[in-house]
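Appendix B.2, paired examples.
Example (i):
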Amino acid sequence: MENKNRDSQSNIICGRNPVLEAVRSGREIDRLLVAHGVSGGSVTAIIAKCNQRGILIKEVSPQKLDYYCAGANHQGVAVMFASQEYSTPEEILAVAKERGEQPFIIVCDEIEDPHNLGAIIRTAEACGVHGIIIPKRRSASLNATVAKSASGALEYMKVARVTNIPNTIDFLKSQGVWVFGADMDGEDYASVDFDMPCALVIGNEGKGIGTLTAKKCDRIVSLPMCGKINSLNASVAAGVLMYEALRKRRKL
């Protein structure tokens, strides 16, 4: 049966036949959830079809799936739908071109907290960012929590979900975009001129940006830390950098 309720995570359909039909329909699906130990029969067909379509498959405990499905009879499987359709890096660049502006892009390298991703989207929209890029795996997706945290900004912000962040950085650079990674061991962000086609890379809440991702960046920038802690919340750091980039781009 289909669960009509919106849970705290996303829109969801559960039950083997409804899930199989949803996957077959070609509708954009955020991820497939499969309960531990469930296999065989139509579940095998569902997993095979998801693999063909490149849909992310995540194994979860039966208890967690019960929670997601709000007690509905899920038969061990459910699919989650994004609160907004995903775009592509090319579409993000097209937005900048349509506006007659230099591209301004945020790359979130494994931001896992949906509240952080939502806050970044909200600030990005306020700063005139043309789009946000997230990885397909090890990242918060465009679920209901992200949409709520973004406070409506998701309706106006293109978000692209890509398989490989380093490869995507290479693509952006091939399009004339300068890529700036945020890390503790970089140059002072205030000394950097962001008045150019640019992308800001914001790393994971705990690990920061990945080693290969950092190597792909043109420059690494950092925020001064005068207290006893050595890092900021990812969305706070992103907000500071976005507004500095906006100030430089508008020559304020």
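Example (ii):
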Amino acid sequence: MILERLEVGPLMANCYIVGCDATQRGFIVDPGGDAERILDTVERLGLTIDCIIDTHSHPDHVAANCAVREGLNERQEASAKLIAHEDARPWIEQPPNYWLLLNMRPGACTIDATVTDGDELTVGELTLRILHLPGHSPGSIVLVMGDRAITGDVLFAGGVGRTDFPGGDYDTLLASLKRLVTELPDETTIYPGHGPSSTIGEEKRTNEWLVGM
């Protein structure tokens, strides 16, 4: 598996470019800014991108959705679809004015397809399983690929997603975290929406929100 992390946008969100070694098909997760750098990285890796996946609808993760999709469709023969959880669709297609207070409101971008809990996506020979884990936002998802998981802003190394933005709920997040650490083995490597990678086991041992779950 090809997996490259880029820190993008003013809040340094993690954008992941993931590809299948055997087929050179790939996908992009959370293009939160710096569209040209993302596109140039895809070209350097030699990937054809099948889809762009948003782990959730917050501006620092979706701001470059349209720019990246349009850039891909100009550079490759096959079109790339923008995918998000069905509960994230309204927030991405009609971003709330609330984000203007944080000087972060992205432009609206139309979703091509939605996913829900338990869905599986296939890119090349890679299979992605979708976990719907709300709390940080209504449409938060985690992408599970064997012993790796892209967790968005649900779980970080040493932290968890904040719940004070519109649509956030602390008790819902705790329930989502409990499900995540119950369903995924300790050896699962997590790739969060901000900061470095970790493992489920390490977070269960050291992350104050998860100890004792």
